[in-house]
Amino acid sequence: MAINFWPFMNKNKLISNEDNQINIIPNHVAIIMDGNGRWAKQRGLPRIAGHKQGMDNVKRIVEVANAYQIKVLTLYAFSTENWKRPDQEVKYLMKLPQEFLNVYLPDLIKENVKIEMIGQMDQLPPHTKEAITKAIDKTKHNTGLILNIAMNYGSRSEIVNMVKSIAEDVHMNQLDPSQIDEQLVNNYLYTSHLPDPDLLIRTSGEIRLSNFLLWQLAYTEFWFTDAYWPAFSEKEFVEALKAFQKRKRRYGGLE
Ligand code: FPP
């Protein structure tokens, strides 16, 4: 009996260590921040109130990511398909980066956060472009978390642009087709300088990619939660990190 008892206790202790500690931190976490509208509706508020609350939650989750020394946090803030929403909502979503940076840029600078953006910047309204460009410039020498905002981002359009650029370079004799491989394709994407995401989180109970980082997510671990983005808490983020560290990543090989 005694022989069986002690290994059982040790095993429990081990499990409790695993449950409370995070030893394997993903380098790059990508989040599809979904459910702002439903969060607002549940409370009898207009949809834009959900986006405002979602914006404030971006700051909270950036702090957690920074504390866990995650290197890159890519957040899907506006897709190339989101232009189909009512004008008033699109206008508000285009104001959010400016509002977010007005309130939080001084803190982000102090916290050593580096702001970057992926997506088609040239199609954004001037005030949105200006706010983001200014923040990118002011944080360009920071060495902490990279907060990578996907704004007017669509993976298919990113892939189309990549194909066009490669074709142009081949046409101009700057590139030979024999040089085209996975690394070269990667070099033509918005994310060329970043590692692929290790962990993708999507909030709000939807289980789809919605045109987000289709190339880059080839070997990413996925984690879904029913929580709406404005209510996605530090506790849930830590749950996702704990789940991630239990995953066995084989990249198609064997352990
Ligand atoms: C999807 O939820 C969310 C968006 C389209 C916008 C996400 C933007 C933020 C969270 C704030 C961005 C912050 C910065 C810093 C730019 P939804 O509106 O589709 O929700 P629903 O599916 O419940 O309607």
User: What small molecules does the structure contain?
Assistant: farnesyl diphosphate
Order of helices and strands: HEHHEHEHEHHEEH
User: What is the count of helical runs?
Assistant: 8
Q: What is the overall silhouette?
A: globular
Protein name: Isoprenyl transferase
Cofactor: Mg(2+)
EC number: 2.5.1.-
GO biological process, one term: polyprenol biosynthetic process
Offer a concise description of the structure.
With 255 residues, this protein is of the alpha/beta class.
Description:
With 255 residues, the chain is an alpha/beta fold. It has a single domain, classed as Undecaprenyl pyrophosphate synthetase (3-Layer(aba) Sandwich). It is built from eight helices and six strands, in the order αβααβαβαβααββα. It has helices at 2-20, 36-42, 47-67, 87-110, 126-138, 155-171, 182-187, 234-246; strands at 28-32, 72-79, 114-118, 146-153, 199-202, 221-224. A six-stranded parallel β-sheet has the order 3-4-2-1-5-6, with helices on both faces. The protein is globular. The chain starts with a helix and ends in a 9-residue tail after the last helix. The model is unreliable at 1-18 (pLDDT under 50). The protein binds farnesyl diphosphate.
Layout of helices and strands:
Elements lengths: L1 H19 L7 E5 L3 H7 L4 H21 L4 E8 L7 H24 L3 E5 L7 H13 L7 E8 L1 H17 L10 H6 L11 E4 L18 E4 L9 H13 L9
Parallel strand pairs: 1-2, 1-5, 2-4, 3-4, 5-6
Helix pairs in contact: 2-3, 3-4, 4-5
The protein binds farnesyl diphosphate (FPP).
